[in-house]
Amino acid sequence: MLDALKFFLFVILLLVTIMLNQHVTSKRSAELNLELLWQIQDTKGVYVIPNQTLPSGVYTALEQSMVIGSLLEEYNDVNTSWVGETDWIYRTNLSCLAEGYRYVLLTFHGVDTFASVYLGDRQLGTTENMFVRYRYDVKDLCDGDTRELRLQFRSPVVEALERAKDRALPIVPTCPPNVYHGQCHVNLIRKMQASFAWDWGLAAPSMGIWKPVRLEYYSSALIRDLTVVIGEVVVDTVERWTVMVGVYLETGLSSTHLNGLLTFKIMYRGIVARVGVPLADESEQTLSVVNQTDANGELFLEHRLTLRKDSVDRWWPNGYGKQALYSLYVRWEDEAVNGVKLPNPDTMISEKVIRIGFRTVQLMQDPKPDGLMFYFMVNDVPIFAKGSNWIPSSVLPERSYDVNYVKFLLYAARDAHMNMLRVWGGGLYESDHFYRMADELGILIWHDLMFACTMYPTDADFLRTVKEEVRQNVRRIQHHPSIAVWATNNENEVALRQNWYKTEPNYTAYYAQYVELYVRTVLPTVEQNDRWRTVLLSSPSNGDQTIKEMYIATNPQDPLYGDVHYYNYFLDGWNAAQYRGGRFVSEYGFQSFPAFTSWPEARSYGNAELSQLINHRQHSPLRNEPILEMIRYNLPLPSDTSQGDYWPELIYLSQLSQAMIVKTETEVYRARRLEHGTMGALYWQLNDVWIAPSWSSIEYGGTFKLLHVWLRDIFAPEHLIAFVNERRLLEVVAVRDTLTPAEELWDVEMRIHRYGSFRPVDRHYESVRVPANSVGLVARWDVYGHLAKRGLHPADHLVLLYAYRNDTKQRTHQPQLIAENFALLDKLKHIRTEQRVQPTVTINVVSAVCSERNNLTSVSLEVSVSVPALFVYLQLTPENSTLKQCQFSRNGFLQFQPIRTVQLTCVDPGCRNKIQARDITVRTVNELLVR
């Protein structure tokens, strides 16, 4: 009974530890956040900004003090370029007492980027890599006196220019294209590569303390990181999970002898999993340690835990099952705690809690007659990866970890049925919160290391800091079940092979650098710190075939191997016949403009001024021409730039065109799962860093473009796909990502409609058996021949498709609608005059409710049309600018029924707005066709 009581008390205490430890920090070792009352100033003292808090950046501080306007408005990306070219100083006062602690360390978790660190008159050291944690021993300075803690920042722009001098081998590309309005040589410094500008983002060469600064007090050892390697074994005919726990201990900055005990527990939502302690026996719960830390004060230990398979649930990707997560608790206790009576024994104890998931992820590259497959197998189930590419949520690093905005974006991905995001290599190693949310939502992460689109140096200092960067970040992130695969860089293999940056004359030298950096440095460092996952050398790449070709494939974009990036800006993207795909398409997409009401200047700018601003923010070297060309292919293009509606109409058409292109391409990839072995579709890109033309589906701030609304159908687990293939047959494919039942019978109805009539002119029916987690061909129908026999013109018609579940057990006569879709039979601009009708569209507010608890307004709308309406586009007027993250449940839809219901949800702080019908504008393609 006493043992049971002790165990119960232990569980309660552990639950409290877990609840207090949501941010995965050490508990028993004292820790002080130095987040308040910093002063920021330039080195000349012209600008002095007091009372700043951390995390912080110079741009943010200058904005808040109104020295500069918002970096994201008008032309401030250029107007504020002086900020990144100036040196700055961060300072605060620090008083500390070492007391009885053996170690007192000042730890900077993120300094952006080049700084000299001083405490009083002593220089503690320098920083040079924004991705690295820096620690300094300050015990002898913690005597109760107040000293100034000062960081003197050097301009990253100036530092990059200095490093570019006297290079034996040109570092290419030297500078970004002029249309980026960017800075040069970012590849020479270990900083977010996109901070010097990208084709979707502005230059913001940030400086600051972008992560926490902490004083760490302890007297024995600190648990810095925990890693896991989880596998499956059979022991005495019993199936078990094995958990190899890696514990990284720190003892200051120098070697010392350790003698103590590590304790391990696995918990489920604060309760020991299912029945009692889910470990094989009690001997596995502890590990005695008698060892020496290395010269840096670090010690790595491994310990194996085993669990019965039936004691825990598996973690699954979104759409395939639940995301079961368990807390792994590890405690370090120095032998001295029990050996003698200590005045402060807690300083010799360290605890850490992380969340883990029991799953297997394998990157399969099975041989095929024509190449190799490339797909992810999760818990022995092949997964078709559906998702997008993630760039930092803000161009300013200190804002990129905004918990609420990151949560909003990840929920938007989850709700669009995504099961994978690719963290792109020109951004950041994301926040702990990002990975925890991905774990909770079942979003697998393809994780690039932070190298992108350039050739990098390989001098000894550069490789040294890169190695430390990779080591620290892989250890921090590794335990998350959402991490599926690592790739050492983005597009550098294909850039070298295809001579993107004129490297051909020095190919041998650049090849040697490539191998030195990725093959000999980054790859082994990742593997040493994560034995649980595959590491790819690049993206795109040919996977295993690239290794056989000595790390640079002959064609890194070979569709028969690995992953591919596919962009085509001048062939008709609405035409499904042009898409062949590959084994795994990890980038593809098309640009559009953000909504007219999203441009803060739109209300005060005329057309000419807005055109100038949009052109300034269009960083693609091709400018707006691909957007305009794709509209010309398929739609009536507004031509009178003086008309007040020019930009609202063009923006609408650009978003419709983007949605159609990504829809068509994605659906071809999903339909070709068996025929071409395509098992992944990650479009470029999910989010944005400012209001500008880009490939994103979600605008900066959270407004969904039409594409993101459509993705709920495009990525739906049960979907009906229809497109005109290369033989001019209407190809209809049923898709199921669901795992049960093993097979379903679907009834598919294809209705041929005239554009001007609600009533179909013809119907065609098919049935198909659709296997679980696969696709089934419904039909390849000669719809054009069928129309010709009936004397009907394709330009006047489209096909609406509906799939119903054929359930013989269902007693009702109303079949269950599974999915619906449409197929255009000709370009919309070719619709003949008699079918060009102008609908009267009426919006009625049926109900509106706002919850003061979560500040969420939900409005039910009825959209009524007098005749069929093409691609109905709903938008709130600019007067509702206080409403945030407003989303329509449907938008850009075909309405071939008189009435349709649409839900609108917005974040409405204080529930102050009352949305009425007049607050919503409507556009349709019809109104452009009838002109």
Q: How would you sum up this structure in a few lines?
A:
This protein is α+β, with helices and mostly antiparallel strands.
Which descriptors apply to this entry?
globular, 34% strand, 49 strands, 931 residues, six-stranded antiparallel beta sheet, alpha+beta, Jelly Rolls, six-stranded parallel beta sheet, Immunoglobulin-like, TIM Barrel, 19 helices, 5 domains
Describe this entry's structure for a reader:
This protein has 5 domains: about 30-215, Jelly Rolls (Sandwich), CATH 2.60.120; about 220-310 and about 320-335, Sandwich (Immunoglobulin-like); about 380-490 and about 555-715, Glycosidases (TIM Barrel, Alpha-Beta Barrel); about 720-835, Immunoglobulin-like (Sandwich); about 840-930, Immunoglobulin-like. It is about 20% helix and about 35% strand. It is of the alpha+beta class and about 950 residues long. Mean pLDDT is about 95; it is low at about 5-25 and about 270-280. Helix 8 runs parallel beside helix 9 (about 430-440) and helix 15 crosses helix 16. It has 19 helices and 49 strands. A hairpin with a 2-residue loop joins strand 26 and strand 27 (about 380-385). The relative contact order is 0.07. Keywords: Glycoprotein, Glycosidase, Hydrolase, Lysosome, Signal. Pathway: Glycan metabolism; N-glycan degradation. One of its GO terms (cellular component) is lysosome.
